[in-house]
Each structure stands twice: as C-alpha cells, then as structure tokens.
Amino acid sequence: MASGKNPVFDTATTLGKILAFLGVSAICGVLVAGLMVPAAAVTGSAANGSVQFFDSLPGELKVDQPGQVTRVLAADGSEIASLYAENRTRVPLDQMSPNIKDAIIAIEDARFYEHGGVDTTGILRALAANVRGSRQGASTITQQYVTNVINESLVAQGKDADVVLNGQKGVGDKLREMKLSIALEKQYSKDQILEGYLNIVFFNRNAYGIQAASQYFFSTDAKNLTIPQAAMLAGLVNSPTMYNPEINPDNALQRRNLVIDAMLQHGKINQQQHDEAIATPIQLKVNPPKQGCAYASQAAYFCDYVLHQILNDPAYGATPDDREKKVFRGGLTIKTTLDPRLQAPAQARVDATAGANPDKWGASLLTIEPGTGKVLAMAQNSRMLPGQGSNFSTVYNFNVDRKDANGNDIGGAGGFQPGSTMKPFTFSAWLTEGKSATQTIDASRRVYPLNYPWKTTCNRVTGAFNSAEESLGAAPTLQNNDEGFYRSMPINYGLYNSINTATYATAAGLNDFCDIQRIADAVQLHDGEGKEKLDMSTLSSLLGPYNVSPMTMASAFAVFASGGTYCAPMSIAEVTDVKGDKIGGQAPSCQQNVIKPDVAKGVNFALQDVLVRGSGYQIPKIGAPSAAKTGTNNFNSQTWVLGFTTGLVTASFFGEALQDPSSRLGRNVTINGKFYPVVDGAYIAGPQWGDYMAQVAKLYKTDPFEAPPASMTGGSTTNRTTTSPQASTPEQQPAQPQAPQPAPAPAPGGNNSTKRNNGNGNG
C-alpha cells in the first residue's frame, strides 16, 4: 500500500543524496542561494553572505518592444504587404480571450499570481519529480518572459549565436534569470508581464505572439479564441515542434487535452466546459502569412520601390543594417500614395496587353499626379516570383531607375529608349525662345553635315546626318518613317505627326541649341541608372537614344500638365512607428515655373492634336481633354505613349524590357494573336494607355487645358475634340519592315553605345 506521507517530503532521502552530491560541488553554495533567495525576496528578508554571487548578478532588464510586423498601406488604408523578420502583432491583454490567459497560466505557471517572480515551491516540486525520473520544469511565466526578452534582444542585435536555449542553461544562467525575474516583478504588474509574455512567445516560425498564432492556426483574432483553441496554443509553447498540430496531430491533441485538464483542476473551467472541449476535435484553419513585397496583395513592384526608398534613406537609420532592422522588426506603418482605384485597372490592362506572352514582351503603366508628384499606380505584366499567375517572372521593376530599387543590378530595369517622346523638349526650347508654335519650318532638309553651323553657347553640338560622311563618323542621311513629309510644314504639325526632319529643322532654327539642354535639365531628365543628366548636345539625343525610366518621363511630362511645375516623384505619405508616432514620410517637393507657363500651354496645344489628327489618332479616346506623345525606338522593340490630362500623367510602355533593345526587332511579330509588320508606339502601348485612362481619368481633374497666347499659335482656335484625322501620317499606319540599322559611329565626342537611336527610327 502506498505511504500516506506527503510525496514531497517522502523524497527526503533522495534529496539528501542530491544535496550531498552538490556539497562536493564548487557551486553548491551558489545553487542553494539561488533557491533560497527568491523566497527571501518575496518575504522581504535580507540576504546573508552566502548569496554574494547572487547579489553580484545584474538586476535590471531592459524590456524593448519585440520585433513586430511592418505594414505597407495604400492611400485608402488597404494593405499592400507585410514585412517582418518575426511575424508578430502586439495586442493588449484586454484584446486576448480570457481562455488563453487561463490556459497558459494553468499549464505553465498555476501560481503565477501568488509568487514574486520565482516559485520556490515549484522548484522543489520539480526537483523531486526529476529525481523520480519524470521531467518537470520550474520556470515561471515571469522567468520565461525574461528569457524571451533577453533572446529577442540578442536576435535584434544580430547575436543569434549568443542565444541560450532552455536545455543549454547553466547554473549561472538560471540564477541570472531568477534575479531578473524578481526585479521585473517589482517594476511591472502581473498583467503587464502576462501581456508581454503572450506577445513575445514563439509558437512557430510563422507565428510569434498570440495574435499571429491565432491567425496562423485558426484564422481568427486572439480575442476570439475558444477553450479548445486556446488550450492547443497554450500547450504548443512547451515544444513548438513536438506539439505542432500540422505535423504531429496526435501529440498536439494529447497536449491540448492535458491543458484542458489543468484548466479544470485549477478552476478555470467547469466540468461541462471541460468535457465539451475534450470532445472537440482539433479544427485547424491554417492561414500561412506571406510576407514581403513579392507576395503583396496589390502592386508588388510599387511595394518594392517604396521599401527600397526607405532602405536607401539614412533618415531611417545611420547604416543599412539599422534601416533593415527598423523596417523588418520595427512594426512600422508605411502609408503610401498608391490609389487602388487606379492600380487595379492598371494591373488588369498590362496583364491583357500581351496575353499568354510566350515571348516575354514587357508592358507597364505608371501614373503620377501633376502638381504633387504622387505615384498613384505602378503596374507591369510580369510577376516577382514564378508560379504567381504569369509565365513572365522577374525582380526587375520596369518603371523606375535602377538605383530606385536595390541600388544594384537587381532592381530597376534601367529604363528604355523613349524615341520620339523626347521631341516635345525640343519644341519646348523653341517656344521658350518666344517663337510661334505654328511657324513654318523646312522639314525637307535631311543632311546635317559634320561642319553644320549650329548656334550654341555651351557644349559643342556633335554628330551629323550625312551618308557621304559616314566614314568620318556621321550617321546616315536623316529619314522619316513615311515618304511624303520631306517638305515645309507648321512646326506644331511636325510635332503631332512626329516627323523626324521637323524636329531637326526646329533645332536648327533655335537661337541657342543649349536651350534644349536647359529644358531637359529643368524637367529633371536623367538616365535610367539614376546617375547622370541626359546630354542633349549630341544630335541623336533629340530622338531618345538614352535609356530613361517611365518614372522620369512621366515626371517630365507632368511639367506640361501642371503648367510648368516640376514635382519630384513621391510614394511615401507617412511612416509611423509602433507607438503611432510619425518618424518619416514625404511631402510634395515642387518647383514652380521650371518652364514658362505659356510654354507648357503651347506644348499642350500641340500634343492634344497627337490624339486627334496625329501619330496617335488611332488610340482609343478617353472621354476627357487629353494630350499625348507616341514614341518608338530604332528597332521597333521599345514603344511608348506618354499621355496626360490636367489631373493624371501616365507613361505606357510596351516592348523588350530586359535585354538590349537591338537583340530582337519589333517587326513581323505576332502579339496577343495579332500580326504586326512593325510595332509602333500607337499600336500596343497606345491602346493600353487609352483603355486604362478611359477608366480612371475622371477620378481626378479633367479640366480643359488652358489655351496658349494667341501670339504663340497664330490665333488658332482648332477644336481638337471634333476634328477628323488626316490621311496617312507617321505612326498611324504600319510601315513596311525595314532592315535593322547599325548604330552609327559617333562624331568626335559622341557616344558609341549600341543602345542609341541613330535618328532614323519611328517617331
């Protein structure tokens, strides 16, 4: 028959043997002190000399916020993506179900509200149980919290190797933990400690803290946990692998039921609740979090752009490591400028542009708001990871400079050749000099030899168009896309019909060729690397041979839409920390009158005709006053429309996005089931722009464009909304395929890049 003695005291002989063994140990006194001092501390007794080691241990613990989820939000507050090193969302204790509080206390520390941080009764009971051969822990919830805080701090500092797991703790580690627990109990209330513990504790690699665990395993919030759900999660913390219901359901069920028994034993539930909970099967509704911009619910590439705006900005930390910790552990809320009302149609349209897209042609749309620079939509037809609904995956962002992503070769695509979308800047220089938008120019001229007397007050103009001088570095004689336009014409006619010879006649008529450079600098044109201003002193530069990003081009065209104001692109409205304090964000950064307002009006006057009678007359009408310019590179492999209303500017791109544009031609190709003898800016990028803008334009301003002074237009009052298109003009009808033209040898001082347009391509 079993002895009637108290089971704890019945182990006296065994405990005596243990103490005898410890007596020969050099750390015996320390261990005894470690066991006795917590009781003394709780009762207020003074420690004696045998606890000198214990007294020398640190007694303060810095409790920092554990790593939390950073959320990237659209302008309307909808979530774009979450970013984290540890999936954790802190919730207050009163937002946790009473069931989880009762369950965790019942199974982990039934005397939690009675002890002072270290439970000596529990320690003695655990020693007795361990001597009998069963395994029982003695760490209180406070001690576990201390361990988690220390480990979390080490991980946050990148000192993962210094983390000491429970099974690896020595006597010194345990004593330190005890002393810190006692001190912590004097600093914080029991409820504060319990709240901190439930928010920091590890459940699995996808769930840190009770809110993340509730969402992960049951797709519910911590405040809604039922008794069986709470019991399962409370049981899980003891061994997140052994009791993981996804991989060890039998273990998880047994552990859950043990917790339910403990809840009954300690009066947290009644017998009926116990029986009903035991009878309930484990009913998981797993909701694995997908963190990172690649898994964004919308606008993955925009998210990546925003992320690297912050990671590259010293305002968010002195070093890259500091900034990365702030983003991935700081629980930030990053509210962006993205407008989902525009983003969804933009994404749908670029996805439709190339259909199944076996040849991986790129398509993108980028919209900004003139007058503020806010990026409202950013879409492209690829995905960041394979298997996300597209056979075209890439990490490269088609819309931004290379530096605006990771700051290296993995990031922005580095821009594309804008072709004739550059022509409005030469036209702007013409108007800036006070010349008429309707003045007649000689567009019959095709030869500009090496010794042509360009008027310039800054850089010498380099390059030439003269087949007779090709051996000396000149490009072939200048060509238009179609015959019939080598003649005199009004300058605005030459622009809206995208006549190459008209652009060079415009440049030849300038008082100062440098005015083109001044316009380019004023609207912040720079290369797709994001490093250098465009050099407009080479003749071919007037037709867009440089790689330029859609973001740069849209921002430049926004100067026209806004009446002369340049605004730097902005994507981050506000950044707040976990406490809700604002720590960053962007405000509109604008410069008024970077070009004269009347010049902007004159450009808009001409570009409205592009969509009515010019190179883009076939582009679908959007039902609002609008203006645009088409562009195509020399290989028909990179095509554009830059179009705008008074409220939105959108860059539409279609073409070769990842390779050298000369690597394949946009000629004799079938795209989305349609055959194209040549691909032109108006043919694919154009409908992409028109269909999208027809859906979204009226969400923002659509005021009519202000008319330029009558002296600038010769008194023209053409109604652009009703005028019928003229007969064939460049970029209206598919041209016959042309043999690819080699990049020209530059004149002295020119650029011999194979990615440059020789000036004879489509408009």
From TrEMBL:
InterPro entries: Beta-lactam/transpept-like, Glyco_trans_51, Glycosyltr_51/Transpeptidase, Lysozyme-like_dom_sf, PBP_transglycosylase, PCN-bd_Tpept
Short name of one Pfam family: Transgly
Domain Glycosyl transferase family: 77-263
Compositionally biased intervals (Pro residues): 737-747
Region (Disordered): 707-763
Comp. bias (Low complexity): 711-736, 748-763
Residue ranges annotated for the Penicillin-binding protein transpeptidase domain, each copy included: 367-637
Membrane-crossing residue ranges in chain numbering: 18-41
Keyword set includes DNA damage: no
Highest taxon above the source species: Bacteria
Swiss-Prot/TrEMBL keywords: Carboxypeptidase, Glycosyltransferase, Hydrolase, Membrane, Multifunctional enzyme, Protease, Transferase, Transmembrane, Transmembrane helix
Gene3D superfamilies xrefs: Biosynthetic peptidoglycan transglycosylase-like, DD-peptidase/beta-lactamase superfamily
PANTHER family the record matches: BINDING PROTEIN TRANSPEPTIDASE, PUTATIVE-RELATED, PEPTIDOGLYCAN GLYCOSYLTRANSFERASE
Protein name: Transglycosylase domain-containing protein
Species this chain originates from: Sinomonas flava
